[in-house]
Every structure is written in structure tokens, then in C-alpha cells.
Design goal:
- The complex is a heterodimer.
- Chain A is mostly helical.
- Helices cover 57% and strands 0% of the residues of chain A.
- The longest helix of chain A has 28 residues.
- Chain B is an alpha+beta fold.
- In chain B, helix 2 packs parallel to helix 6, helix 8 packs antiparallel against helix 9 and helix 13 packs antiparallel against helix 14.
- The longest helix of chain B is centred in the middle third of the chain and has 33 residues.
- Chain B starts with a helix and ends with a helix.
- The chains are: A mainly alpha, B alpha+beta.
- At the A-B interface, helix 1, helix 3 and helix 6 of A face helix 12, helix 13, helix 14 and strand 8 of B.
Chain lengths: 194, 674
């Protein structure tokens, strides 16, 4: 049965929730963590170079452009991928430099995954336009689908429960205050009508 | 005027505070004179905010650079229309604009309820005043648009070139109109929860305002996509940027509410759920504002970091705590008044639709916040871009698209097998035929195939509904098709307006799926050189450069490249793309050069050309074929038209009638009676 939550219960839960929220922020402060680092300028660029393995490029220019769609421009002022940024914003000094690095790695015979790994090793995972499918990042990919799935199951089970117990609702209806005389009068009226 | 404007802001603060205190006191003590005073305070708050706004506009038009806001966002040579729109170009002005619309809406809501909802109104008035108080306090203490500079500069910094676009002039106001309209349903929900008057009474007012919010959000989001497409130059219209997501979230929950409210009206079910949706929509609108203004998540749209973000986060937390308390302590009052009779029924379908809409909202919110969550858990910064959002959301969108077709065809209470067969045979056949045709034409992209198959299915369900309605009217009243169609829609605005919205959704889905066939080319051309390529439909295009030209206009120097084009050997219109360097009245550069995209629009595709840069005589260009983009704008327009039809006032009168109305043909009536 659903029951109302008392004020005391609610305030208790609120206090617990506030404490739970406060703890990670305190921990974060102790680690010196700050979700908003200072915006990067052209200083955000870091060279990504590896010794060439051969003289044959590992992919076509189209495939390299596609690869650059998976790399995040590190200028810090845009949210674009390297390809889109360098072909849109002529003023950005970072995306053309990252493009040159990507071209050099392609020319050096490195595969797409190796190039992505090289950029990740230099800049960290933030250089990828999407988190890698590993470890905690799986939560990012799976939680929405799992949440929708759980919600779906809950809704279906709720619907099934409702269907299974329709008579309860009828019984729960408030008793009629129609008197015996009034009912008899109604029956008579209905008999006359028919 | 400036002094009057600034003073008005402070008077508005006092009025909003008075309205808040007196409204709740009046409600608690049942003193009508206090409630009346609070309602007058709402009107007064609006009047003073209007004066404050006029003062700021006056300063913008007169280029009064003693005011920091005016100097920050305008210059003497800025076209007049953009001096008007500069009002919402920066933090302080946009907050004042927000307060202006909020107090206007509040005044309308209070005035419209002067003879009804009287038990709720003290708390509705109090909640509206409290929200207004927050915004006016933020203006007075956190982001005052009347803040002065220590000196008066000769000229202002000017407006960001990307904001000097007609789309940007009308996109933010529409979004604000949508965001802020969520406050009124929220206030009614709070009023209904406090007074425990949670029957249908409050829903009528809430529905109208929710529709208004949905309409403006739809228009605002569509205009935002158009602006991003024609102005930013990255070749798309939706980048899953946090601020774009922030506008999408209340749209999703608002859409869910507009569906589930029908279940409450018809069957008295989903009462808790509807309250939660109304409250969530408002909180998500505030969350969006928090994301825009706090700088907590990097976005191309974000305002500079300011203490205002913290104010919003506290407001959000308090609002969440209070509304959670109200809902949790009134669960019994919110119990359903009917039970579901079948899992295959209209109300069940609406519930499934709600799960998907809220699921998509959760998914978008999760993706938007995941960088923060990841950093908190792992201490590692990550980027969550379109690749992630598309991977997670496209399957959910496809499910939602399917439900768009299924829901309206299922009967209320319980659908029989014959009902299902009758309703779904045609649409299923249309879907299968559509799929077969696309496969035969060589389409192999899995998502695009599923999307177009579902589009054919949903479109057929809608066509079938219109066909049946028109045929029935033709048979009953001997009306011709045009008259029957007009009257069908006019007399059932809510239902058929909703179908028109669904047509818009289908058009949008068709256009979005077209992105799978986008083609990009990175090109360098000197004068007289030609680039040849194929478009997604297989046609051969040539682009011949006419060379680079430079010229001066009102407030900018432009560098332009003109391309002569042919398709399969036939001449097509020329395309011009530019880089613009904006300057102030002293000819000093104001901002970094901005891109002006060249677009050759067509029903099948846009040819989208960006001048990335010029090196000597050589132009560096990106030439993109964007299939079906024009249908995004058309789909948004159709959705807005459908929303207008649903909102049309006469709908409310008819909404009072429950169930279906059966009429006999006039000439047969006597015979039937005998």
C-alpha cells in the first residue's frame, strides 16, 4: 500500500542525501580536483609523433578524415572534432597541428586504432570524441539502456498487477448512502420507463 | 531613463518579495485581502521589470557606453536590429529578458485565474513570485545589466559576429518563451500539492501553458538548429552540445506530459506521474539555465563563468527538495482513480511512449553529465561527443518513432484482435513495401533502413486516420474532400493537430536519417581551377573557382570566393562563401574572422561550402553534400503548425466533452426514430 511520507522521514532522508552529496565534493576538494580547468589556448597542443614504420600510408585521405572525426580539438574553446574544426575555423592553431600529427602517423604506417592510442597517450582520454568502451565508461554506454529496460519492466509489472486486481478497486469504492426507499423508487421508475 | 530603469529593478525586487510572502501568508491564513495584494504585486513586478527593460533598450539604442553591458555587446556601427537583439546577447541582459517574460506570464496566469482556481491561486501566485524573486535578486546582486564602467569608452566592443544573424535574433527569445512557460504549470502543481486539490481542476490551466511551452521550445530548437547550420559553418545542425541538450530535455519531458495528461483526463490515471513530469520539466529548464551560466560543462554556447551559476545550483537544489517533499507527503492524494484494463490499450501505449520519452531525456542528461561523473569517479577528463550520443540514443529514438505510430491507433481501455488487425494491416504493409523498395534501390545503412521503414509505417497510420475521418464525414454530411478535411481538423483540433505534429516528427526522422549519406570534401582551388566529385545520389558536380575577392561592408571586411557549379554538365546557381572580419567604427578588428557559409539549397540535398581560409591566391574549401536538410526546417514548421492547431482556444471547449460523439445523418433521423 502507498502511504504518505511523514515530514520527519522526509527531512531525515534529505539530510542523508545532503551528506552523501557533500562527501564526494569534500573528497574532490582534498584531491585538488576541479571539474573546470582553465580554458586551454594554443598551449593545449602537444606533439604526437612516432618513428615511421615504413613508407606506405596506412589509410586513404578519406579514411584519415573519418579518423579525425574521432579526435577532439584541444584548443579548449570549441567542442568540435579535429576534421570539422580545421575545415571550419581557419583561426584555430590547434586542429591543423593535430591534423599534421595525424597525417605523419598515417604516413608512418600506423593503423587507426594505433593513432587514437597515440593521441590518448599524449593528451589523455579527453582527446577522443567518445569515451573508450572499457571499465567505468561502460556505465556511460549502458546505464541509459539499462534504465529504460528497468523502467519498461517496472511499467509492465505494474500494468500486470493492475490487471490482476481490478475487483479491489470496485470494493474500495465508498458505500452508497442511497436509502432503501430511494432505491425502491428508482426501481419503480425504471420499470415504468421500460 | 537609465536611472529609472535601474531603480525599477530594485522596486521589482521588493514587489516580488512582497508578493511571495503575502501570497503564502494569505493562503495559510485564508485572508482574501492578502491574496489580492499578492496578485497586485505580480502585476507591479511586471510593470517595473518592463520599465527596467525599456531603460536597457534605451541605453542600447543610444549607445550609452557608460554601461558595461552596452559597451560589451554593441558598437556604434552595429545595425539597429542587432542593437535591439543585444538585449539577450549577454548574461545580465538575458536574465533581465527572462525576468520580463516570467513576470508577463505570471501576470497573464494570475489575471486568467481571477475567477477560477481560487483555492490554488494564493500558492500559485506565491510560487510565481518566488521564482521571479530569485531572478530579480540574481539581476540585482549577481549580474546587474546597469553596472557602470569607470570611464566612458569611445566605442563598444561590438557583437559577436555569430550572433549577427536573423536566426540568433529570434532563436533565444523563442527558447526563453518555452523555458519560462514551464514555470506556470510548476506553480499550479505546487499549488495543487499544497492544497491537496489534485483532481482535474488544475490540469486545464496546466495543459494550456504546457502546450505553449512545448510550442515555443519546438520553434526555438528548430531555429537554433537552423542558426547553427547557416552560421557556425561546421556543416551540421545538432552537435549534442550541452546547451543544445539542455533545451531538448524539457522538450522531452513536456512532450511526455502532453501525452500522459490525456490518460489522466480520460481515465483518471497517472496522477503521480503527471505531477512529477510537470515539476521535472520546470527543473530541467532551470538545469539548462544552470548549465549555460555556470560553465560547469564546456560548451560553445556558455556564458562566461560567473557566480550566477552557483545561485542557480542552490535554487535548483531547494526547488528539488521542496517539490520532492510535497510529492512524497501527498502520495495517497495522487492515487489513480481507475485501473488499467489491458496492456494493449491506448493508455498503456501512452505509458510506453512516456517511458521512452523520459528514457531518452535521462539518456541525454546522463551523456551531458557523464564527463563530470567520470571525473568525480575516476579523476579522468573525458569528452562525450556526437559519437557517444548517437550510439546511445539512436536505438531509443527508433523505438520512440515506432510508438508514435502505434499509440494513436489502439483503442482506449482494451483493443480487440480485430481492432488491431484493422488498424495495423495497412501501416505494416506500407513499412514492408518501403523497406523492400529501399533495399532494391541499394540502400544498406542499417539505421537508415530501420528509420525509413518506421517512417513509412507511422506515416501510413496517420494517413489512414485522416482517410477514415474524411470518408466518414463525406458519408455523413456529403462534404467534398477539402471541406471534410478542414472540418475534421477544425472540430477535433486536439486529435488531428496531434497527428500533424506526428507528421512533423516523421519528416524530421526522414531528414535526420539522411545524415547517414553525407559526403564531405576537403578542397583547395586557385582561380580557374575545377574540382569534380559525385554527390550521394550519384550525380557528377563540378566546382570552378572565380578567384578570391575582398571588399568592405558596413561593419566588416569580407574575403569571398565565388564558385561556378554544374551538375551532370548542366549549369547550377553559383555559390559564394565568405570570411568576415568585423571592425568597429575606428576600423579596429573586434572579433576573430567569422565564416559565412555558401549554401545551395534543394529538396534532395544542400551543397554546403565553407571558406576555411585563403593562402595567397588559393582558397581552402570544405564542400559538403548534406542530404535532406531542408526537411529538418520543414518538419519543425509542420510540428509547430500542429502545435498551434492543438492550442487553438476552441479546443478547450470541446475538451470538456469526454468520449466520442455519434450523429445520425439528418435525412435518416426521422426514419431511425420511427
Amino acid at each position: 500500500m502507498i502511504r504518505d511520507v511523514s515530514r520527519r522521514e522526509f527531512l531525515g532522508a534529505l539530510a542523508a542525501g545532503a551528506a552523501a552529496l557533500a562527501l564526494p565534493s569534500i573528497a574532490g576538494a582534498q584531491q585538488g580536483g576541479n571539474s573546470m580547468a582553465a580554458p586551454m589556448t594554443e598551449g593545449g597542443y602537444k606533439e604526437v609523433r612516432r618513428p615511421a614504420r615504413g613508407t606506405t600510408p596506412s589509410m586513404t585521405a578519406d579514411a584519415r578524415d573519418a579518423l579525425e572525426h574521432h579526435l577532439h580539438c584541444q584548443c579548449g574553446t570549441c567542442t568540435l572534432d579535429v576534421y570539422t574544426c580545421r575545415t571550419t575555423d581557419f583561426n584555430c592553431p590547434v586542429s591543423p597541428a593535430m591534423h599534421r600529427d595525424a597525417m605523419a602517423l598515417v604516413a608512418g604506417g600506423y593503423s587507426a586504432q594505433e593513432i587514437l592510442d597515440a593521441f590518448s597517450a599524449t593528451y589523455g582520454e579527453r582527446v577522443l570524441m567518445a569515451p573508450t568502451k572499457s571499465g567505468f565508461n561502460w556505465a556511460g554506454y549502458l546505464v541509459p539502456s539499462v534504465a529504460v529496460g528497468i523502467a519498461g519492466v517496472l511499467v509492465l509489472s505494474m500494468l500486470a498487477r493492475w490487471r490482476a486486481a481490478p475487483p479491489e478497486r470496485a470494493l474500495a469504492m465508498p458505500p452508497s448512502d442511497v436509502t432503501h426507499d430511494e432505491r425502491a423508487r428508482l426501481d419503480a421508475a425504471l420499470r415504468n420507463d421500460s | 531613463m537609465i536611472l529609472i530603469g535601474e531603480l525599477s529593478l530594485w522596486v521589482a525586487l521588493v514587489m516580488a518579495a512582497w508578493g511571495t510572502v503575502v501570497a503564502f501568508a494569505g493562503g495559510a491564513t485564508r485572508r482574501a485581502e492578502l491574496v489580492a495584494s499578492a496578485e497586485r504585486a505580480v502585476y507591479a513586478t511586471f510593470a517595473f521589470i518592463l520599465l527596467a527593460s525599456i531603460g536597457l533598450w534605451d541605453a542600447l539604442f543610444r549607445s550609452d557606453f557608460s554601461i558595461k553591458f552596452v559597451a560589451s555587446f554593441t558598437s556604434r556601427n552595429l545595425p539597429t536590429v542587432y542593437k535591439f537583439t543585444a538585449f539577450w546577447a549577454g548574461q545580465a541582459g538575458s536574465l533581465l529578458f527572462w525576468a520580463l517574460i516570467l513576470t508577463l506570464y505570471s501576470s497573464i496566469a494570475v489575471y486568467a485565474s481571477r475567477n477560477k482556481n481560487r483555492a490554488l491561486m494564493p500558492y500559485v501566485t506565491g510560487t510565481l513570485s518566488a521564482v521571479a524573486l530569485f531572478f530579480v535578486a540574481t539581476l540585482c546582486f549577481g549580474a546587474n545589466p546597469y553596472e557602470r564602467l569607470d570611464f566612458i569608452p569611445v566605442d563598444g566592443r561590438g557583437m559577436n559576429p555569430q550572433l549577427q544573424n536573423p536566426g540568433m535574433a529570434i532563436h533565444p527569445p523563442n527558447l526563453y518563451l518555452g523555458y519560462i512557460a514551464t514555470t506556470v504549470p510548476f506553480a499550479f502543481a505546487v499549488g495543487a500539492l499544497i492544497t491537496r486539490q489534485l483532481d482535474g481542476e488544475w490540469l486545464a490551466a496546466v495543459r494550456r501553458w504546457s502546450l505553449l511551452s512545448w510550442f515555443f521550445l519546438t520553434v526555438g530548437i528548430t531555429l537554433g538548429m537552423w542558426w547553427a547550420y547557416v552560421e557556425l559553418g561546421w556543416g551540421g545542425y545538432w552537435a549534442w552540445d550541452p546547451v543544445e541538450n539542455a533545451s531538448f530535455l524539457p522538450w522531452l519531458t513536456g512532450t511526455a506530459f502532453l501525452h500522459s495528461i490525456m490518460v489522466q483526463e480520460k481515465r483518471g490515471m497517472l496522477r503521480k506521474w503527471n505531477v512529477v513530469l510537470v515539476v521535472s520539466t520546470f527543473l530541467l529548464a532551470i538545469l539548462g539555465t544552470f548549465i549555460t551560466r555556470s560553465g560547469v560543462i564546456s560548451s560553445v554556447h556558455s556564458f562566461a563563468q560567473s557566480p550566477v551559476g552557483k545561485w542557480f545550483s542552490w535554487f535548483l537544489l531547494v526547488a528539488i527538495a521542496l517539490t520532492t517533499y510535497l510529492v512524497m507527503t501527498r502520495l495517497k492524494d495522487l492515487e489513480a482513480k481507475a485501473e488499467l484494463e489491458s496492456m494493449v490499450s491506448r493508455e498503456a501505449a501512452f505509458l510506453y511512449n512516456n517511458v521512452m520519452l523520459v528514457g531518452v531525456a535521462f539518456s541525454v542528461l546522463w551523456g551531458t553529465l557523464f564527463p563530470i561523473i567520470s571525473e568525480a569517479v575516476r579523476g579522468t577528463k573525458i569528452t562525450v561527443g556526437p559519437v557517444f550520443f548517437n550510439a546511445v540514443n539512436i536505438p531509443l529514438f527508433l523505438l520512440l518513432l515506432g510508438l508514435t505510430g502505434i499509440g494513436p491507433l489502439i483503442a482506449w481501455r482494451k483493443a480487440s484482435v480485430s481492432n488491431l488487425r484493422r488498424q495495423f494491416t495497412g501501416p505494416l504493409v506500407a513499412g514492408v513495401v518501403g523497406l523492400a523498395m529501399l533495399l532494391a534501390l541499394g540502400m544498406r545503412d542499417a539505421y537508415a533502413l530501420i528509420a525509413y521503414t518506421l517512417c513509412a509505417f507511422v506515416l501510413m497510420t496517420i494517413v489512414q486516420e485522416f482517410y477514415k475521418g474524411v470518408r466518414a464525414r463525406h458519408a455523413m454530411y456529403a462534404e467534398n474532400v477539402a471541406v471534410a478535411l478542414y472540418r475534421l481538423v477544425a472540430r477535433n483540433r486536439r486529435r488531428y493537430g496531434g497527428y500533424i505534429v506526428h507528421v512533423g516528427v516523421v519528416i524530421l526522422a526522414i531528414a535526420f536519417a539522411g545524415l547517414a549519406f553525407k559526403r564531405e570534401n576537403d578542397v583547395t582551388l586557385k582561380a580557374g581551377e575545377t574540382f569534380t566529385t559525385r554527390d550521394p545520389y550519384g550525380a557528377v558536380w563540378t566546382f570552378t573557382s572565380e578567384g578570391v575577392s575582398e571588399y568592405e561592408e558596413l561593419n566588416r571586411f569580407s574575403t569571398a570566393v565565388l564558385l561556378r557549379t554544374t551538375r551532370d554538365g548542366k549549369p547550377m546557381p553559383a555559390i559564394k562563401t565568405e570570411k568576415r572580419q568585423y571592425v568597429d567604427s575606428q576600423k579596429e578588428n573586434t572579433f576573430e574572422p567569422a565564416t559565412e557559409v555558401g549554401i545551395l539549397e534543394g529538396a534532395r540535398q544542400d551543397v554546403y561550402v565553407v571558406l576555411a581560409g585563403v593562402r595567397g591566391e588559393t582558397a581552402e574549401l570544405r564542400i559538403t553534400f548534406n542530404p535532406l536538410v531542408v526537411w529538418v526546417w520543414f518538419g519543425g514548421l509542420v510540428m509547430a503548425i500542429g502545435g498551434l492547431i492543438v492550442m487553438w482556444p476552441a479546443t478547450e471547449k470541446r475538451a470538456a466533452q469526454a468520449g466520442y460523439e455519434a450523429r445520425l445523418r439528418p435525412e435518416r433521423a426521422p426514419a431511425a426514430a420511427s
